[in-house]
Every structure is written in C-alpha cells, then in structure tokens.
Amino acid sequence: MLACLYPWAAMATTLQQAMDIASGKHPQLRMAEQALEAARADLTEQSAYAYNPQLSLEPQRRKRNGGGTSNDYYITLSQGVELGGKQGYRQQSAQANVDAVGQRAKATYLRLQTEAARAFVDLYYAQKTLLLRQQQRDVLHQVSQAVKQQLVVGESSQLDANLASSAYTAALNAAVVAQQALTQARMTYASALGQAQSSSELVLPQLATDWQAPPDAYEVALASRPDLASMRAQRVVSNAQAELAGAQQIPDITISAMSGREAGDQLVKLGVSVPFPVFNNHKGAYRAALARADQVKTGLAWAEQQLRMSVKAALTNHHEAMQALAGMTNADEAARSTLTLARQAYDAGELDLEELVVHIRQSLDARLTVVEIMQQAWLARIGLAEVLGHPEYILQGSK
C-alpha cells in the first residue's frame, strides 16, 4: 500500500541503497531544490531595472476671464535613473545568493547521505544487540527453570533458585530495553530515508581496516565541503549588499518630459527631480551592512579553523576504531566457546550456579563488545567521510 502512495518508498536492504534513497527523494532535498528555484527567480527580479517609465495624462477644462472655455491637457513621461551602480550590486548579490543556496542544497545532499548511513548502521547493530540480549534471556530462563526443578527434588538450594531468578529478571529487562532501542532506531532510520517504514532485512558489508584517508585530508575537506562553499558565496552576498548600501547614499534622479496645451498655447517642458538626503542619508544602513559583511567573514574564518580541528579529530577516531576492529580477531567465536564450555562445566559439576551466571554474563559482554567495536568502526568511517565532504568514502574498501 505504501509503495502505491509513495513510489519512491522502496525498502533499502543495503547501505548503498539507503544512501541512494535518502539523497534521491527525501522531502528535505525537495525543499532545498525549491529554495534554489526561489533564489533563481529572485536573481531574475534583481537583475531587472528598478524603475519603470511612468506616463501621466491630465486633461483640464478652463473658463476664461473674457468668456469662453479652453480645453487643455498635459502629457508627462518620467523615468527614474539609478545612480551609483545599484543594479549591478543587486544582481551580483542575487547571483551569489543563487550560488550559496545551491551549495546549501549540496550540503543537504551530503547530510542526508551520512545521516542515512549512520541510521542504517545504528539499526543494523540494534538488531544484533537485541538478538544477543534475547539469547541471554533464553539461556538464563533455561537455567532458572532447571534450578527450580532441582529445588523441587532437593538437588538445589533456595539461594541458587533466587540467584537464577534474579539473573533471568535482569536479562529479561535488558532484552526489553534493547527492543525499545531497536524501535527507536527503526523510527530514526525511516525518518533518515524520508519514509514511513523501514526494512527489517539489512545487509552490511565487512569494513576493511586497511583503508586510508587522503594524506592532504584538510585540503580535501576545505575544497569539498559544500557548507564552506556556501559560506564563501554568502561572503560575496554580504560584500555586494554592503556595496549596495553604500550606493544607496547616492540619491536616484527622475527625468521627466512634458508636452501639453494651455490656453491654446503649446507647451514643452523637461525636468530633473533630485531628492536631498536631509532626514535620511542611509549611513546607518551602510554601517549595518559593513558589520554584517565582517560577521560573515569572521564566521567563515572560524568555520575553516574548526574544520581543521574536526578533520584531525575524525582522523584520530577513525585510526583508533580501525585498530580496535583489527585487534578483535576471533573474539566473537571465543565468547561463544566460553558460553558452551561454561554450561558443560556446570553440567559436570565443575562450576557452581553463581560461576555459571558470571560466565554467561561475561560471554554476552564480550559479544556485545564485539558488536560495539564494529558499530563504532562504521560510525568512525561515516564521520570521517562526512567531515571530508566525500560520502563515497563510506563504502570504499568494504567487502
């Protein structure tokens, strides 16, 4: 039914599909495209001349003192003239605004891709976490039931029964919390893709630990980040607005030509109207425009400085996450083996119940640690690709 209402609402099962859907038909992307269209329309408006010619016709019927009447008329054509290059500054500002809005649309595209990738990874590992919590719940439930049966026949103590029941209750609560986290992850994932629901079958490739970021990472980010490009275009906008505000201090003139007849005489008149900036000379607007231009310039410099720190932090996080991922060889298999050996030792009487519960929890903690390491490795890769402005880096080197 959803596919009929929203043909683009395909169910993404891979990370690449999720990124493609988010960056293809997401409502936020359409909003960015609409903002770009509005900016282009404004460019058309600002490129036009500010004043249209005006034509006025004034017919007049006059009674003469000596008797009789006179039919007079006046036809006036006037045209405002912009001085100080105002039209050029408006056009320059509007063109730079088109560039800024276009770069913001690209920034939205990048953000949607990275948000979709991050939500995909979070959902994938939320499913893994829930599965492990459910397995722990089921194992401890079996242990609790077995201890209760042993208590009935006198082969176990009430203390052991209470311990097994307490461990099962804690595992049951952890499974409920994991289910709630999975539900939230599904909602976040569906929102990241701009859809009403999400797929439950997700496939995530293996992340290669030997992939390296470009050696000139900061320069790559500086040249690639669309949000910085948008700020540079916004600086051009603010500078043009400051120039326009300065030009506004030069008053525009109006040239007029009049032709008419009065009392039988033909009249022709040329005139120039010049306003005097006595009460409002626009100096305040000019100072405000200069301050805003300085503010944009300062903001751009600060953003570039922050980018350097962000690139350094992202590279460090990625390096450490890849090292952790490379160092967990066979950790999951070892945790599985620990659980199997612990149950065998308990059945053989080599472990008491408390030791068995400890081993079960340690085995689960080890497997959850493996899941967390893999998740953090993916999130570090996504974060690095986002900082560098290259979402294609997310899947480079994956298997």
Give an overview of the whole structure.
This protein is an alpha+beta fold. It has a single domain (12-51, 86-250, 282-394), classed as Outer membrane efflux proteins (OEP) (Up-down Bundle). It is 67% helix and 11% strand. The protein has helices at 2-5, 15-25, 27-47, 86-152, 158-193, 217-224, 226-247, 283-326, 331-347, 353-388; strands at 54-63, 69-81, 253-262, 265-273. It has a four-stranded antiparallel beta sheet with strand order 1-2-3-4, with no helix packed on it. The chain is elongated and about 140 Å long. InterPro entries: MdtP/NodT-like (IPR010131), OMP_efflux (IPR003423). Pfam families: OEP (PF02321). One of its GO terms (molecular function) is efflux transmembrane transporter activity. This is Outer membrane efflux protein.
Proportion of residues in β-strands:
5-15%
Quantity of strands, as a count = 4
CATH superfamily descriptor: Outer membrane efflux proteins (OEP)
Helix content: 55-70%
Tally of individual helices: 10
Which residues sit in consecutive blocks of at least 5 with pLDDT less than 50?
A: 1-9
Overall geometric form: elongated
The SSE string, one letter per element, is HHHEEHHHHEEHHH
Mean pLDDT: 87
CATH topology: Outer membrane efflux proteins (OEP)
Pfam families: OEP
GO molecular function, one term: efflux transmembrane transporter activity
Protein name: Outer membrane efflux protein
Family: Belongs to the outer membrane factor (OMF) (TC 1.B.17) family.
